[in-house]
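Format notes (please read before filing issues)

Several people have asked whether sequences and structure tokens are stored in separate files. They are not. Every record keeps both together, in the order shown below: the sequence lines, then the token lines. Line labels are part of the format and must not be stripped during preprocessing.
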Amino acid sequence: MYSSLTLFRKYVQYLFKASNGKGHGVHSPFVFTFIKEVLNKNANSPLIPLIESERVKLERNRQMVEVWDRGAGSRQTKSTTRHISQIAKAALKPKKYSQLLFKIVNYYQPAQVLEMGTSLGITTCYLAAANPNAYIVTMEGAPNVAAIAKNTFTKVGVHNVQIMEGDFDETLAQYLNAIQQVGVVYIDGNHRYEPTMRYFESLLQKSDNQSILIFDDIHWSKEMEKAWEEIKSNAAVTLTIDLFFIGLVFVRKAQKEKEHFIIRY
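Then the structure lines:
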């Protein structure tokens, strides 16, 4: 993981390189529409106040829980005991990016949504609220974190979510065997090069023109930046969008030339 100072410097570099966040100068019709209809729209749902209320409660919860991390992408099992608030600080995506995930699902309306890493259920609830008719699956390697997430689903009142507990390599294989193609996938489970590439290659096998793969923290470390560059260069990937904290990958077979965008968000 990069130091806070290094991340800050990289973020400043990103701001200088990024295209205008309003779409000015973006010549791709698809990306221009994405900017206008997704990035620049507000997230609207009656469930959002409930989700944010649960976020605040998790961030203030001093209950101690034992976290058995079965190692998403790793065979090692280790246990730590932490306050739920500590887990929330490390796991929860900021409201801005949780709502971006909502806006992506809300606009494209995929039938299948997969989240790898539950973030205590907060981002899962946003994904579920964005399309109540979608089949939402969230994967979690730590049983106690999964239990907290299930409680979050109940309190918010989302009913279109299935949680799969266990090692990501096993649960991802089960998931892919049960579906025809992936829709929107949010990968936030293991910020290392090797498992990130393994998940990408597995997901790519069932991706098509409508699939969107969203990778969290693409500039978090040298490993993640290496993975991001290799994902961009993959022959099947025709379009990527770098928003610094997340990266979006599109497999648009009708698009003959690769395009890579860095957009301010």
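For reference, the curators noted about this record: The radius of gyration is 18 Å. The chain has a mean pLDDT of 92.
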